[in-house]
């Protein structure tokens, strides 16, 4: 593992300390095994419900930890700024409000209206700039320099330590997981999974998941070097990354087994599948892990599989259109079928 990767990944002590900060502001989230998902995938599937976090997504954990340390390091801090497609911004907004720090958030034009409203409700100054995330991030960096604000990155050791607390919960509750599937945006979720797995000394395989319409991390993984790729996803905005982060790539290269891509249609099918099988709402990025599990179901059959429902912040009109779609994996569950108990599933084999 490279020095950059080692620097980014928190230790067991770091994660435990981060968890203490997180639990001062929220309870651990549930990991649940849903019979209909087991039936659909032919596997023992454990869903980590980060959609039940205070902001509806896993990012809140990282924001709590990052700003906790920042406020102590810079007690005279004038304010913070960051860029987001929504969940990171809500994380920053919630943590900043609790600490009495002003927060400015930059989002791309045409960003989710309901995510924007949620950020404003947390007291942030919201600015729409740029056509996609990278342009928003570059503008946020300009504002930081012009207004003497602290620029919160999308990826940092403290953010990863906070995110890793949810993977610690899942791995501690289900240490026998054969494989976990992890969406990759800028990489904090993936790095958190790696850090928690390594800290606990587990051998669980990690499969990264990207949008087929935002392939930067997959192309980089396959080439062994950083590759930018255009973004055109219409549903999975949380993984709409054009420029990969070099430090998270180093973790990806050395610690992740493979990276798969899911199309927008597959993501929408998974959103509907999640709703029918669990009656939980998943946003596009939040359904990527389940979409990948469905795509890989033949290989995953009989295994013990972890998927993260990493966020549920989808605009209501988008969700209505998704639920109205014909979706084979979801509609299949509504037909009469024999439900197999977990004990009758095939024995585990390597994915």
TrEMBL record:
What Gene Ontology terms for biological process does this UniProt record contain?
isoleucine biosynthetic process; L-serine catabolic process; L-threonine catabolic process
Top-rank taxon = Bacteria
User: Which InterPro entries does this entry report, sorted A to Z?
Assistant: Ser/Thr_Dehydratase, TrpB-like_PALP, TrpB-like_PALP_sf
Q: Which cofactor does it need?
A: pyridoxal 5'-phosphate
Keywords in alphabetical order, please: Lyase, Pyridoxal phosphate
Alphabetized GO MF terms? L-serine ammonia-lyase activity; threonine deaminase activity
Tryptophan synthase beta chain-like PALP domain location is: 30-311
State the SUPFAM superfamilies in the record: Tryptophan synthase beta subunit-like PLP-dependent enzymes
Q: What is its EC number?
A: 4.2.1.-
Q: What class of enzyme is it?
A: lyase
PANTHER family for this protein:
BLL6502 PROTEIN, THREONINE DEHYDRATASE, MITOCHONDRIAL-RELATED
What protein name is recorded for this chain? Threonine dehydratase protein
């Amino acid at each position: 593992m490279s020095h950059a990767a080692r620097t980014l990944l928190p230790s067991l002590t770091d994660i435990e300390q981060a968890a203490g900060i997180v639990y001062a502001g929220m309870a651990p989230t549930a990991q649940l095994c849903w019979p209909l998902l087991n039936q659909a995938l032919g596997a023992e599937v454990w869903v980590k419900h980060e959609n039940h976090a205070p902001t509806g997504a896993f990012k809140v954990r990282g924001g709590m930890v990052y700003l906790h340390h920042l406020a102590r390091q810079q007690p005279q801090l004038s304010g913070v700024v960051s860029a987001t497609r929504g969940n990171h911004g809500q994380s920053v907004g919630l943590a900043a409000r609790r600490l009495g720090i002003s927060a400015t958030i930059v989002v791309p034009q045409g960003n989710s209206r309901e995510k924007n409203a949620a950020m404003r409700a947390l007291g942030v100054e919201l600015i729409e700039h740029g056509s996609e995330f990278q342009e928003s991030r570059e503008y946020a960096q300009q504002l930081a320099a012009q207004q003497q604000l602290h620029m919160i990155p999308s990826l940092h050791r403290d953010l990863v330590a906070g995110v890793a607390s949810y993977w610690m919960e899942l791995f501690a509750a289900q240490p026998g997981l054969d494989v976990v599937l992890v969406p990759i945006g800028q990489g904090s979720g993936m790095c958190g999974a790696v850090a928690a797995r390594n800290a606990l000394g587990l051998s669980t395989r990690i499969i990264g998941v990207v949008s087929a319409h935002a392939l930067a991390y997959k192309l980089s993984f396959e080439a062994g070097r950083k590759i930018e790729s255009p973004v055109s996803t219409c549903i999975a905005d949380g993984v709409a990354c054009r420029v990969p982060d070099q430090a998270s790539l180093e973790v990806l290269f050395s610690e992740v087994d493979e990276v798969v891509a899911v199309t927008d249609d597959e993501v929408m099918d998974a959103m509907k599948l999640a709703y029918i099988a669990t009656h939980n709402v998943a946003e596009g990025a939040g359904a990527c892990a389940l979409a990948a599990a469905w795509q890989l179901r033949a290989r995953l059959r009989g295994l013990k599989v972890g998927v993260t429902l990493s966020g549920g912040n989808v605009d209501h009109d988008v969700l209505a259109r998704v639920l109205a779609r014909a979706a084979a994996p979801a509609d299949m569950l509504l037909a009469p079928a024999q439900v197999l108990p977990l004990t009758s599933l095939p024995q585990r084999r390597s994915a």
